[in-house]
Each structure stands twice: as structure tokens, then as C-alpha cells.
Amino acid sequence: MWNKFIVFIFVLLASSLQAQLTFEGGVYAGGSITQVDGDNAQGFNKIGLSAGAFVQVNPSEKFGVRLELGYIGKGSRRPANPDNNDFQTWGYNFRYINIPVLADFGFEKFDVIVGPYYGYLISDSQMFNNETFDIVNPEMSKTDFGGVIGAEMDFGDNIFLAARYSMSLIPIRPSPDSANQVRWYDGGMSNVAIEILVGYKF
Questions:
Q1: pLDDT (tens digit per residue) in 13-68
Q2: 198 neighbors 29 (Cβ within 8 angstroms)
Q3: Chain-centre distance of CA 7, in angstroms?
Q4: pTM of structure
Q5: Which of 3, 26, 88, 98 makes the best surface tag, with the fewest CB within 10 Å?
Q6: Cα distance between residue 128 and residue 130, in whole Å
Q7: pLDDT value for 39
């Protein structure tokens, strides 16, 4: 799958380069709030970091193709509920290297970005009452393949603010609870993330 993804990236970039139009690059950083569908800890209670860099080719004024390389923290967190005498907390900590390939559609006051991403898992752990444990039986998949949609607004010539929503399209781990069917394609755990980012374009 990884080889096919790289080929897909270069085909997109090569087709854009043939237009011999404008290039730009940039960096971004911000935060993520995430949850994991299929782990029974509902809600965007996990806070993480997001950061990365990108290059973009623009075949026209209103359309571009962007390749990114970034880091994102994902996972979930079930907070305690003292009102119900529930003082236990648990959740998941995931860290990924993300490679999104995004189409950038320009409008008058903002841009819409959409496309697939490939994520490589660099670390994972499970938390229970502030203690950390390895994830076993079943283990995590090393890859996270999903989709991204978002919007960006420019402030001046270089600075932009972005909001993104992303979700896994294939499970990142079989569900520990075989009765928990989270989506039509399979039972399992899937990442869902909302990111708020500030970026700088060169």
C-alpha cells in the first residue's frame, strides 16, 4: 500500500508540474482534539499537538495540489465522573507521522482542502488512572489511512488559520469488543480528529 501511495503522490505532482505554474511552501502548528470510534470512550476529550510543513503547486489561481509531512497526536480519553462516584480515567495515546495529499480549492474569502492521508504509527500506549500500559491483544496497525476535509483563511500575504476534520477509512485496530460494530465496513477502532492550526506560507 505504501508504494502505491508514493506513486500516487508523484503522479499528482508530475501532472501539476507540467503546467509550469506557481509553487509555494509553508509550515503550520496547532492542536488537535480527538476520539477513537469503537473504544466506548465517547467524546473529543483527548488533546494533542499537530505540526508540519508542506509544498504546493498551483496549476491555476483557484486550484492547487499540496503534499504535507506532519506530526499529529491522536487517541481518546474517558474522564472521571465524580458525580456518579466514578473516579477512573482511561484512554489511548497515539502519535503519527502523517502524509496528506490535498486538493486546494480557492474561493473569494477562504480555501477548501480535501484529500487522503497516510499515517505511520510511531508510538502507542493505553492509559488507566494515570498509568501507562502497552497495547496488546490485539495490537495496533502501523498504518492509518483516511480522509481530510478542512478550510483555510488567509490573514495578510503569509499567515493563515485552518480548521480540519479527519477520520480513518480503515480500522486502526480490531475492536476488543467483538460485538461493537462501529461502521458498515468492519468492527474496529478508528481515529477521528479535529485540528485548529496557524500557518505561515513562504
A1: 566 555 568 999 999 999 999 999 988 788 899 999 999 999 999 998 899 999 99
A2: yes
A3: 21
A4: 0.84
A5: 3
A6: 6
A7: 83
